[in-house]
């Protein structure tokens, strides 16, 4: 077998790494943690960030969850809605359209037939306006929240924290985590904003202020 100059150089690099392995660098962990804000301030900060990202925000009390969700779906003309298998059925109690429970056996492309999806959430970061989904039964698989054009996401105020370190501390590292900051959007070469490229074009966040 012919040995090229490239092979020789790469071989020497591998030998050097084997003989003198670099020590693992220390990872700084001095994050700002444990920050808190009163409920009203966390709600105001999260709402401001979400609206700035062009999401729709609908605060309500927990006893109006079903009513507000139905209003959002009706306003968007959603007649077929997907839901995770573990979502609280009462949340769709006021909705008069078709509800399709999701499962892993349903091909992801067929989720495009849905007008929207309703999910819960794991935790939200007020400082960055980011909602975290962790694949729990009431949040479902990642495809369910990315394929339909409308995502109605229910956030309990008790799950809203100030910053990213506080949010990450509430997550289980082994779970698949999806981060959402407003509806899906990107910019083309002329910096024109294009929505709905990598996920839902519309994000409606129902924040339950007493939950």
Automatic annotation (TrEMBL):
SUPFAM superfamilies assigned to the protein according to its UniProt record, in alphabetical order: NagB/RpiA/CoA transferase-like
Record protein name field: LUD domain-containing protein
PANTHER family per record: LACTATE UTILIZATION PROTEIN C
Domain LUD positions: 112-207
Record Pfam families: LUD_dom
